[in-house]
UniProtKB/TrEMBL annotation:
Pfam families the UniProt entry points to: tRNA-synt_1b
Reactions catalysed according to its record: tRNA(Trp) + L-tryptophan + ATP = L-tryptophyl-tRNA(Trp) + AMP + diphosphate + H(+)
InterPro entries: aa-tRNA-synth_I_CS, aa-tRNA-synth_Ic, Rossmann-like_a/b/a_fold, Trp-tRNA-ligase, Trp-tRNA-ligase_bac-type, Trp-tRNA_synthetase
Keyword Ligase on entry: yes
UniProt-annotated binding residues for ATP: 9-11, 17-18, 144-146, 186, 195-199
Binding site for L-tryptophan: 132
Organism: Fundicoccus culcitae
Compartments where located: Cytoplasm
Protein's name in the database: Tryptophan--tRNA ligase
Keywords: Aminoacyl-tRNA synthetase, ATP-binding, Cytoplasm, Ligase, Nucleotide-binding, Protein biosynthesis
PROSITE patterns: AA_TRNA_LIGASE_I
Its biological purpose: Catalyzes the attachment of tryptophan to tRNA(Trp).
First-tier enzyme category under EC: ligase
CDD domains referenced in this protein's UniProt entry, alphabetically: TrpRS_core
Amino acid sequence: KPTIFSGVQPSGIPTIGNYIGAMKGFVDLQDDYETTYCIVNQHAITVYQDPKTLSQTTRLLAALYIAMGLDPQKSTIFIQSDVPAHAQAAWIVLCQTGVGELERMTQYKDKAQKQEVVSAGLLAYPALMVADIILYDAQYIPVGEDQKQHLELTRNFVDRFNNRYGNGKDLLVKPEPMIPKSGGRILSLQDPTSKMSKSDANTKAFISMLDEPKTIIKKIKSAVTDSVGEVNYDKENQPAISNLLDIYSALSNRSIDDLVNEYHSLGYGKFKSDVADQVVATFEPIQQKYHQLVNSQELTDILVEGAKTANETATRTLSRMEKAIGLTYKP
Ligand code: ATP
Ligand code: MG
């Protein structure tokens, strides 16, 4: 089976953007691929996280993975800091990556701007992501559009490493991004020029997967729109309405055309209220399962088991890398 790897940061409660852009796809891939899904808590600490909140959110995210349909019998589910090979491989990646290459990353530039003090970890972030991916020989990486540039960096790294150390063989697998055709970039509900992010300081800008129905309805009602007054899919001139169409379409499995036909002249009020109903309908059953799982021993057991499996694969790849670059001494 072809291999899949992806992860989400416990930097907040995942949003419907995370779900539509990446997490929903995780579930669909389980049957036909060898899937490994991580909760990347070491990525989260590239900016300050309150310790107690971080550990709670880590567990929360794991529970959501399973509540939305990941099956530990089919997928390896684990916490990044349980597998030391990630940080070890990231160091090797860092030593073969130019500072300039990292400084060019738009996520770095965006996030650095918002920090009073920029950590070296924030700059190094993509190297850890390269490590995550290569350790599992991952061929396909289901992610949102914003991760495309980091995937390109990963592909360049793999070429460089294989050329330098492979002696004509491919030591590492070159991954490809898997980005959904629509919904790969869900926008902020308050500012349709920026993407929806779970770490946004303005909580009205995103809907989290655990928001209560009345909060969801309120947030969609107060989402910014435009003065056109007709529902069209026009990302340039009506980005906010197009964003709501992307959300509605992804969660209902109805085509954008179909939705535009129905709502074109019904007014924004009716349109928004039906989008809100759809969001509530999608996440209510997930939330129910989430609450059953989050404090269970079963969840801990799944993560311990997942770490065991992940450690085996990751350690094997790390050894291969160390041997190739001469981090060995035994004859
Ligand atoms: P943060 O603000 O802390 O970076 P985030 O919302 O960007 O949080 P990540 O954990 O960085 O979430 O990303 C998890 C996955 O969700 C990635 O595959 C990313 O590409 C995807 N993703 C993030 N935001 C969006 C979005 N607005 N639309 C679609 N996919 C998204
Ligand atoms: Mg992000």
